[in-house]
Amino acid sequence: MNNLQPASVWHYFQELCKVPRPSFKTQKAQQWLLDFAKEHGLESIHDKTGNIIIRKPASAGRENAKPVILQGHIDMVCEKNNDVQHDFEKDPIDFYVEDDWMRARGTTLGADNGIAVAMALAVLAADDIKHGPIECLFTVDEEVGLVGASGIEPGLLQGKTLINLDSEDDHWVCIGCAGGINTLAQFAYETMETPAGMYYFKVGITGLKGGHSGTDINAGRGNANQLLVRFLYEEAQQNELYISSFQGGNLSNAIPREAACIAAVPFASKEQLRVRLNLFEAALQAEFGKNEPDLKLTLDSIDAPATMLKPEYATRFLQSMYACPNGVIRMNKDMPEQVDTSTNLASVKPTAGKEN
To answer: For residues 209 and 221, is the Cβ–Cβ distance under 8 A?
Structure first.
């Protein structure tokens, strides 16, 4: 890490990785920024929404230049693999560098938009950059609906030119932002006692890249919920399949990387189930190729769960999930590489009496 350049940017990003900052819970990161401003003798403003503005006066001779605003958001998408023990409200991000990429072990890294915070702080701390007046705007809760940006009080910002640092692609300038809508579907269901004489198992999909449901939706990556439902739906066409529970994904703006289902088939079908799973895995590997090199399907024997969904409810659930659209719906007719409309089957989880 010490060899990464610009050193100041990576220093501040490493320090930020030590500070918990889930959406709606960025108070520690807010205080960290205020402490930075105090340490460097810079003016800071902390508004009622939680946004922070830090101002740096112009360099000598640049006092008459127009102020420039550098903007990024504090919060991060908090996703982790099922086998990872990590509390995003307490634990630092465990990062490493591999093949010129910084990654996190089993969790999201938070470079969206932590790298913007780090770049802005590096500019604020620098004494070798000629610049006019600078305002750095750090907003809160961007990942859950642009809450901070919407709550900025009129008149707080002095600059007329804003550079948005929340743009992930090199050599591109972001000039707009897509809107988003969350759709919540609930399926009421009834359960029954688990039938005897069945093969009880947990089937899962792991190793997918995931990503941001906006930025990465056209990257050709797999959606764990969609792919696992696809296998279960096809299995149900050939076998007597019972479902106890299904869970995959978490956040609405993250493409799910893992999903798992507890289910059962007649014991005599155990080996055929395993064969079909292996064939399905091979088909997915051929379908996604280099886009998902670590894709893996797992099948583990388990003890009988207490209950199963009644067959009619399991069928309704599988049919609904199988038919649910996912991915790119429409590309922009004027900019062929630009996604116009997309959707993400982000999270499926059971609640009491409902499958969400």
So the answer is: yes
First to last CA, the chain: 42
Out of 132, 164, 196, pick the residue that ends a domain. Answer: 164
Contacts of 233 (CB under 8 A, 6+ apart): 318, 319, 321, 322
The arrangement of strands across the sheet holding 198-206 comes to 242-248, 259-266, 198-206, 296-301
Q: Which of 75, 235, 258, 281 is catalytic?
A: 75
Residue 55, beta-bridge partner list: 43, 135
Q: Which two tokens stand for residue 242?
A: 């019972």
Which residue, 281, 324, 294, is CA-closest to 221? 294
Among 183, 256, 249, 4, which residue's Cα sits nearest to residue 111?
Answer: 4
Looking at the structure, do residues 256 and 342 belong to the same domain, yes or no?
Answer: yes
Q: Is 75 a catalytic residue?
A: yes
Same domain, 200 and 346: yes
In sequence order, the 6+-apart residues with CB closer than 8 A to the CB of 346 are 213, 225, 249, 250, 251, 252, 253, 254, 255, 256
Residues recorded for the chain: 356
Q: 165: closest CA among 213, 111, 217? A: 111
User: Based on C-alpha coordinates, what's the Rg of the chain?
Assistant: 24
Q: Cβ(119)–Cβ(134) under 8 Å? A: no
Instruction: Clarify whether 39 is annotated catalytic.
Output: no
Residues 192-232: pLDDT tens digits?
Answer: 999 999 999 999 999 999 998 988 999 999 999 999 999 99
| Whole-structure pTM value | 0.74
- 155 within some domain: yes
What single string gives the DSSP state of each residue in 33-94? HHHHHHHTT-EEEE-TTS-EEEEEPPPTT-TTSPPEEEEEES-B---B-TT----TTTPPP-
> Catalytic residue among 112, 142, 258, 281, which?
142
Residue 354 pLDDT > 70, yes or no? Answer: no
- What does the alpha-carbon distance between residue 215 and residue 296 come to, in Å, rounded to a whole number? 24
